[in-house]
Amino acid sequence: MSIVDFKSSIWTEPWFRKLSNHFKLLYIYLFTNNHKNNAGLYAIDIETIAFETGITIEQVENGLVTLESEVKYDFENSIIWVVEHVKHQFMKTSKVSPKIIVSLEKALLSLNKHPFIGEFMEKYEELQIPYPHIDSISGYPTGKGKGESGGNGSGKGGDESETRGKSLKDGNGKCNTCIGEDSCKSIGKTKSMRKLCEEYKYGETL
Fold first, then answer.
1. Nearest 5°: CA angle at 12, between 9 and 16?
2. With contact defined as beta carbons under 8 Å apart, do 46 and 60 qualify?
3. Cα distance between residue 194 and residue 189, in whole Å
4. At 176, is the secondary structure helix, strand, or coil?
5. pLDDT digits (tens, 9 = 90+) for 142-201
6. How far is it, in rounded angstroms, from Cα 151 to Cα 187?
7. pLDDT tens across 39-75, in order?
8. Residue 50 burial (10 A CB sphere; 0-12, 13-18, 19+)
9. CB 127 within 8 A of CB 96
10. Cα 154 vs. chain centroid, distance in angstroms?
11. Backbone angles phi and psi of 160, in degrees to 5
12. CA dist 15 to 18, 55, 73, 190, Å?
């Protein structure tokens, strides 16, 4: 069992105060449960969350959508990322222990190149976590997207949103990453992906 440093000031933060009691409990649980790792990026299914918190499955699902700015959840693969976990646990000073860096790398390696890893590495770039598979993570900005031609020698790389748009749509023009047309639950959803979903009318507005 690990010790979690949960900031008490959260009770006065406007976004948290507006949450229902169930959603407050859900966020605290996701930050403190025994399934999590040091990265706050781990596998857990909705049934487990519901059983251990006493919240209904429907409330858990709604809560995960409501908490989207603080928590990202991949509904298809049952992977969750508590976005500020590393910041609040390990970045209170300018120096992070090498042992913590190793534990973060180990946590990321256990997730089999999940798309959330790319966003995690981008957010915590300053930690210089030696994750070996970063170039193979979908959506991670490697700097290769602009200024390259598509093989015709023109030197024009094309707009990033256009590239993502092609990868998002299937043969029917639907978003491959969304689970439902009315509720956008994209895997590793970024703002640009949400904008594309909005354009195709299969997701939320920004």
1. 100
2. yes
3. 7
4. coil
5. 444 344 434 444 444 444 333 333 333 333 444 444 444 333 444 444 343 444 344 433
6. 30
7. 999 999 999 999 999 999 999 999 999 999 999 999 9
8. middle
9. yes
10. 35
11. -60, -40
12. 6, 20, 19, 20
Q: What DSSP character marks residue 125?
A: G
DSSP state, residue 169: B
Helix (H, G, I), strand (E, B) or coil at 79: strand
What residue type is 136 in one-letter code? S
- Domains of the chain and CATH, by start: 8-85 (1.10.10), 89-136 (no CATH), 160-199 (no CATH)
Contact 100, 63 (CB under 8 A): no
Residue of 136, 89, 148 lying closest to 108 (CA atoms): 136
- Chain position carrying tokens 């920004």: 206
- Rounded Cα gap, residues 116 and 169, in angstroms: 20
Instruction: Tell me the residue length of the chain.
Output: 206
Q: Would you say the pTM of this structure is higher than 0.70?
A: no
What are the respective helix, strand and coil percentages of the chain, to the nearest 5?
45, 5, 50
